[in-house]
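Curious: why these numbers?
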Amino acid sequence: MQDRIYRPGRTRWRRFAAMMVPATAAVGAILFGMQNGAIASDITVSGQTFKIAAERLEGDGFKQYGGKVREKGGTVHPIALAEIESAELYKLCQSVRAKGIPVVLTIHAGEGKEPARAKDLLIAMDSLEGNATFTNIKIGRDASELNATAEAGSFGQNADRVTIRDLQQVSRYTTASTFTLVGLRLKVNIGADAKECF
C-alpha cells in the first residue's frame, strides 16, 4: 500500500468550506473536537495521515466546519474540522503506516463492554465514511459562530448528539483534553502484508 501524495494547489478556502453541502458535511464531521477549542494556528502537521475505525461512535455536543492545516515545509491541506464535547467509541482502531519501511503501528481499545472515552476532542480529517444519525442538527450556520477561529461567512453545522456506525476515517491530527483507552493494545506490525484498520 503506497502513501498518498498531497500536492499544494490553488484551492479557494472560502469556496471549499461553502461547498461542504449537508450530505458530505454531515458525514465528514464526526470524530474528534475540542470544546470551546480553536484549531491552533501554531500547529504544524507531519504531512502523514492516519486511520481511525470504530464499530460505533456516540457523541454529544457536535460542531463541524472547514479549515486548513500546514506542513513545516509550507504545504497546505484543506481539511474538515469536527468538535465533539464527549464521545464513546466501541471497538476503536487507530493505525499509521511508516514512510519508506514496511511497518504499521496499530492501537486497539474499547473492545469489551466498556468503550474508549474522549472529552473535548478536535480532529482534522481528510475523509470519513459510515452511517450517521444526528439529533437536532442545524445545517448552514456561519462557522464563526461555532468557533471564533473559523472564517466568517463559511459553512458550519452543529447538533446536540451524533451516532455513527461503521466509522472509517482518514485524519491529519487529533487533540483531546482526556482520552481514556479501555483495554489498550498497541502493536508494531512488520512486513509488506502488515494491515491497517481498513
